[in-house]
Specification:
Blueprint: E1 3-8, H1 13-23, E2 31-38, E3 41-48, H2 51-57, E4 66-72, E5 87-88, E6 94-99, H3 105-114, H4 126-135, H5 140-148, E7 155-161, E8 168-173, E9 178-181, E10 186-189, E11 201-204, E12 210-213, E13 218-221, E14 233-234, H6 250-256, H7 258-266, E15 270-271, E16 276-277, H8 286-290, E17 294-299, H9 301-318, E18 322-326, H10 327-330, E19 341-347, H11 353-364, E20 368-373, H12 379-383, E21 387-389, H13 402-420, H14 426-447, H15 450-460, E22 465-470, H16 475-489, E23 492-497, E24 515-519, H17 525-537, E25 542-547, H18 551-556, E26 559-563, H19 571-589
Parallel strand pairs: 17-18, 17-19, 19-20, 20-21, 22-23, 22-24, 24-25, 25-26
Antiparallel strand pairs: 1-4, 1-10, 2-3, 2-4, 5-6, 6-7, 7-8, 8-12, 9-10, 9-11, 11-14, 12-13, 15-16
The structure holds 2-deoxy-2-amino glucitol-6-phosphate (AGP).
Length: 607
């Protein structure tokens, strides 16, 4: 979603800002802009569409060593040059960039209009610039703080003033903001990727923080001037991890990274001798873990399908009642918090508004909520009561791939811990540990099917609708396969439990609607074969993802993608990778922008 970057130092700010915005392109946006300060003047350049449009409008020799930039993902007002950020006050001396939503902007706008202010845009954000201007009496920090006392809603803001050169004021309430500390230069951004080319020393802002930054120092207070002490952290990954490294797209790179990312998620966490696992960040004693009587896992999108898979896994191996719930539903259903229930929030970005607000609602009602997140220092891990980082490394493509298998890894480890504390024997535990250790190699083996999957995609990419069907542990994988296809190819796809097909959706089966069946060699195999036959009987084309050596499937399905034989609980890992590749090749054949699909944002920070 929207991205913010701010710079003050000795470099030409325009270049730094545009480069920072490009690094955040993956978050999804529809317009972009910068405002650069020089000689007591602020120059704004903003353009609808790709950052390349902005780049061509920025003169190569643009002077000015401080400024702010923004990528906008429209919420209030159409996508055009005018509505793009930065926004300025009527004097043109103050510019701001804003992420989030100002909920009371209509009443604030009316009030300001009655006072004679003329608005130029349809956005909620413009009101911030005019409010700051109203309170400005020679001190930008004071004016921002006064303005914030009138604002309701969520924000990450950076403001600059033409008469206070090389100074930025940042504020955060519900939208991420990070300070980057360089030598004689400072950055503010919504995402560390924007500043990674210059510094790895960062300070994560928290809700209620206001930070005053010049090129050599920073000071953080709350809105009422009380000092807030901040810790400086070092970003734990390198700039080359956000490069394509020879792959044509980030999505392909991330799909192929999965043997490594899954391995990283397990590293140091498996206990071979005891057939169990260790997860340091849970902040729970064994006694507390043993007392858990139910687990509820909240998430959105792909993370929700990981949550569903893990709920199945927990019930299966640990025999604990477990369920997955959509964050966007939990927040508003007035959830009943039962003291025996342990809650998890799963989120790649750690910033998804639906998941964050659902977590806060549960915590308000006394729940213990643990986070399963990827982005270190993001809001969910900081506000949760403990949790696990999945360590999949930066995920840049909007469509999540490697984060999904890493989320499974973390939750499988948790399931194993819980299982071994209950009925699971050491021998069974060891079998699961061995099976997990084999996953990276098995994914690697599966990836060899890449070109073959491409040839299957070539056969079906013109179809207008697909079904994805699985049962048990592979049911959520079918849902994820359908989501992946629709996100990046824009083809309509439905994920279903294969057993549910006959209860309605089978009415849609015909020669032009392929069904992708997931057929692991577990106790549901025969049932799934029956469902496949039901589709074949109605002339529906069938693509099966089955286990190597299962020749019977080849006699029923039109096309079969084989995954290596594995422990029956591990097929979600192997099969989902095949579906990611299928979606990927289908999207490429349709000439889609797979890394930045239309209308989508990587980190959904609004409700
Ligand atoms: C995945 O491909 C999606 N783009 C999306 O569904 C995503 O998984 C969802 O928005 C949740 O994001 P999170 O994991 O960062 O919370």
């Amino acid at each position: 979603m929207c991205g913010i970057v701010g710079y003050c130092g000795d470099r030409a700010a325009a270049g730094v800002l545009v480069e920072g915005l490009k690094r955040m392109e993956y978050r999804g946006y529809d317009s972009s802009g910068i405002s650069v300060g020089y000689d007591n003047r602020l120059t704004i350049i903003k353009k609808k569409g790709k950052i390349s449009n902005l780049q061509s409008a920025v003169p190569d020799d643009m002077t000015g060593s401080y400024g702010i930039g923004h990528t906008r993902w429209a919420t209030h007002g159409e996508v055009n040059d005018l509505n793009a950020h930065p926004h300025s006050d009527s004097t043109g001396k103050i510019t701001i960039v804003h992420n989030g939503i100002i909920e009371n902007y209509i009443s604030l706008r009316k009030k300001l209009e009655n006072e004679g202010v003329e608005f130029k845009t349809e956005t909620d954000s413009e009101v911030i610039a005019h409010l700051i201007s109203k309170f400005y009496e020679g001190d930008l920090e004071k004016a921002v703080k006064s303005a914030l006392t009138h604002i309701e809603g969520t924000y990450g803001i950076v403001a600059i003033h033409a008469d206070e050169p090389c100074k930025m004021i940042g504020a955060r309430n519900g939208s991420p903001l990070v300070l980057g500390i360089g030598r004689g230069e400072m950055f503010l951004a919504s995402d560390v990727t924007a500043m990674m080319a210059y510094t790895k020393q960062v300070v994560y802002m928290e809700d209620g923080d206001v930070v005053v930054v010049d090129k050599d120092s920073f000071r953080t207070t709350d809105i009422r001037d009380n000092e807030r002490n901040k810790e400086i952290s070092t970003v734990g990954w390198d700039i080359d991890e956000i490069e394509k490294e020879g792959f044509p797209t980030f999505m392909e790179k991330e799909i192929f990274e999965q043997p490594l990312s899954v391995q990283r998620g397990m590293k140091g966490r498996l206990d071979l001798d005891q057939g169990t696992a260790k997860l340091g960040g849970l902040n729970m004693t064994n006694r507390e873990l043993r007392a858990v009587s139910r687990v509820i896992i909240l998430a959105a999108g792909t993370s929700y399908y990981a949550a569903m898979t893990c709920a199945y896994m927990l019930e299966r191996v640990a025999r604990i009642p477990a369920g997955a719930e959509l964050s966007s539903e939990v927040r508003y259903k007035n959830p009943i918090v039962d003291p025996g229930t342990l809650y998890f929030v799963v989120s790649q970005s750690g910033e998804t508004a639906d998941s964050l607000y659902a977590m806060r609602e549960l915590q308000r009602k006394g729940a213990k909520v643990l986070g399963i997140c990827n982005v270190v220092g993001s809001t969910i891990p900081r506000e949760s009561d403990g949790g696990v980082y999945i360590h999949s490394g930066p995920e840049i493509a909007v469509a999540s791939t490697k984060a999904f298998t890493s989320q499974l890894t973390a939750m499988y480890l948790f399931s194993l811990i819980m299982a071994r504390m209950r009925d699971m024997s050491i021998a069974e535990g060891k079998a699961i540990v061995d099976a997990m250790i084999s996953i990276p190699d098995q994914i690697q083996e599966g990836l060899k099917q890449n070109m073959y999957i491409k040839s299957i995609a070539e056969k079906y990419y013109k179809c207008r609708s697909f079904f994805f069907l699985g049962r048990g542990l592979t049911y959520p994988i079918a849902l994820e396969g359908a989501l992946k296809l629709k996100e990046i190819s824009y083809i309509h796809a439905e994920g279903y439990s294969a057993g549910e097909l006959k209860h309605g959706p089978i009415a849609l089966i015909n020669e032009e609607t392929p069904s992708v069946f997931l057929v692991p060699d577990d106790d549901l195999r025969e049932k799934i074969i029956s469902n496949m036959k039901e589709v074949k009987a109605r002339k529906g084309p069938v693509i099966a993802v089955a286990v190597s050596g299962d020749t019977e499937i080849a006699e029923i399905a039109d096309d079969v993608i084989y995954v290596p034989k594995a422990h029956e609980l591990m097929y979600p890992f192997l099969m989902v990778v095949m579906l990611q590749l299928f979606a990927y090749h289908t999207a490429l054949l349709l000439d889609r922008n797979v890394d930045q699909p239309r209308n989508l944002a990587k980190s959904v920070t609004v409700e």
